Amino acid sequence: MAAEKILETVDHYKSEIERLTKELTETTHEKIQAAEYGLVVLEEKLTLKQQYDELEAEYDVLKQELEQLREVVNLLKKADYC
């Protein structure tokens, strides 16, 4: 009788170990997936930041060119009036 109780307890602990091992494996897999997703998001963020910086630099160049063109137009207008 006591031996049966011990065997039941051992079986219960074995089942619990199997369940916990499976749960740990699943949780670890989920964490790995989340980390991989985080890396993808981070890479995308870095790419977007680089594109933004490039567009901002291009904007600054175009803004400067526009200002220079406005100055030329103003000079041409003044030359026509003189």
From TrEMBL:
GO molecular function: cytoskeletal anchor activity; dynactin binding; dynein complex binding; dynein intermediate chain binding
Coiled-coil positions: 3-79
GO cellular component, one term: cytosol
Record InterPro entries: BICD (IPR018477)
GO aspect biological process, one term: regulation of microtubule cytoskeleton organization
Keywords: Coiled coil
Sequence similarity: Belongs to the BicD family.
UniProt cross-references to PANTHER family, sorted A to Z: BICAUDAL D FAMILY MEMBER (PTHR31233), PROTEIN BICAUDAL D HOMOLOG 1 (PTHR31233:SF3)
Protein name stated in the entry: Protein bicaudal D 1
